[in-house]
Amino acid sequence: MKEQKLLLIPGPSPVVDRILEALAQPTVSHISPQMEKELGGALENMKKIVFTTSGQPFIVAGAGTLAMEIALLNIVADQDRVLVLSQGYFGNRMAEICEAFDIKYHLLQSPWGRVVTAEELRTELKKHKYEIVVCTHVDTATGACAPVREYAEVIRQVAPEALFVVDGVCATGGIEERMDDWGIDVILTAAQKCLGAPPGLAIDVFSKRAMDKRRQLHRVKAYYADILRWLPVMENPNRYFSTPCVNEIRAFYEATRIVLEEGLDRRFERHDRLASVIRSGLSSLGFSIFTDETCLAATLSAVRYPEGLDDVSFRRKLYENGVVVAGGLGPVAGQVFRLGHMGNLTREQVIFAFDAIEKTLLNLGYAFTLGDGVETVRSLLVR
Ligand SMILES: Cc1ncc(COP(=O)(O)O)c(C=O)c1O
Questions:
Q1: Are 298 and 170 in contact (CB under 8 A)?
Q2: 46, 168, 178, 282: which could form a disulfide with 189 (CB 3.0–4.6 Å)?
């Protein structure tokens, strides 16, 4: 294994050589035939990745948080009310964005480690009228995966005129999101998680309904984040609004090709399988999972420490042993660590990770049976 740390934080995920090579290609003009092919190609690939034929994708320099602003600011009218469903840190960030732009909203939260149920959503939609409903598919702070398809069903039944926005930053490209079939109006995501590209791109896909809503809005509280300024570029990459991050787009185009080459069903299945194998390996070493069994995410795990293991020492030693994981956020800081298992993660990398975890437990004098973790994942991860 090359002398670099294995990134098992909840994004960025490990970037494979083929994508790094695309990133390292010469910087070309942003209105060149290469950009036309690669930005155009990445946009088409994104439509396939979220299962839409009529949706309009946007790929803009920025991060997932910009994608959140783009999603909201381009569909909210002054008098609109937004229902924000939250199961953690990033659901709450959507509420903060509403605050920042004086958008009327109501925050419906679940306890950390659980999700708002479809029935709780139904009850709320029966009580109040909302023009927009926003959810977080996977909240990276809690590892909880929301029932997006059920939410879409309830919205279609109880509030069919409401636009449905899904934050897929920690899900798109790793967990199924069927925009047209389920009736999702905006999917927002970023390059650096399940899509396996380096960070630096905000990605939004707008349904026809959402595009119509934008066109109805006389103006929006945005300039750079205004999709009608970017639309001509997305329709024809030879046009200019603001200089796109050329090399990042070259890398992202390659990343979307890798996703489609693997095949979406196979990729979703691989994320599911890796998630359960990794959790089995962790429990064989005495760790437990913080998130409720009913809403475990395929893309990351929030892992509770067993008695006697200190968060900072564990993560520091694991880093020395070649693997990077993330600490807990907010109320669970110090009690859990977050292990990302998304993107183009391989069997060999998972085995390497468990070898490093066992070395770390040994270094910290924690009592366990050496090899249990590695053998558990190796035996479950048949070639
Ligand atoms: C669910 C979710 N939404 C939004 C974001 C924000 O993305 P970024 O850090 O790229 O701004 C994150 C980042 O981890 C996330 O996990």
A1: no
A2: 168
| 3-state DSSP percent of the chain in helix, strand and coil, to 5 | 45, 15, 40
Q: Which atom of ligand 1 is nearest to the CA of 141?
A: 16
Amino acid at 219: R
Ligand 1 pocket by Cβ (under 6 Å): 11, 63-65, 68, 90, 136, 139-140, 167, 169-170, 190
- Distance (Å, whole) CA 334 – CA 312: 8
CA-nearest residue for atom 9, ligand 1, is 64
Which amino acid, 276?
S
Domain ranges in the chain?
A: 6-11+263-381, 17-262
**Distance of CA 188 from the midpoint of ligand 1 (Å):** 10
Ligand 1 geometric centre to CA of 222 (Å): 20
Please tell me the residue having the least CA distance from ligand 1 atom 4: 64
Asked whether the domain spanning 17-262 has the same topology as the one spanning 6-11+263-381, the reply is no
Task: Give residue 243 CA to ligand 1 midpoint distance, Å.
Answer: 23
Q: Domain 6-11+263-381 classified CATH 3.90.1150.10?
A: yes
Exposure of 96 by Cβ count < 10 A (0-12 exposed, 13-18 middle, 19+ buried)? middle
Cβ(51)–Cβ(178) under 8 Å?
Answer: yes
- For 17-262, CATH gives 3.40.640.10
Q: Is 122 annotated as belonging to a binding site? A: no
Digitized pLDDT (tens) for each residue of the chain, 383 residues in all:
456 899 999 999 999 999 999 999 999 999 999 999 999 999 999 999 999 999 999 999 999 999 999 999 999 999 999 999 999 999 999 999 999 999 999 999 999 999 999 999 999 999 999 999 999 999 999 999 999 999 999 999 999 999 999 999 999 999 999 999 999 999 999 999 999 999 999 999 999 999 999 999 989 999 999 999 999 999 999 999 999 999 999 999 999 999 999 999 999 999 999 999 999 999 999 999 999 999 999 999 999 999 999 999 999 999 999 999 999 999 999 999 999 999 999 999 999 999 999 999 999 999 999 999 999 999 999 75
- Measured in angstroms, how far is the CA atom of residue 140 from the centroid of ligand 1? 8
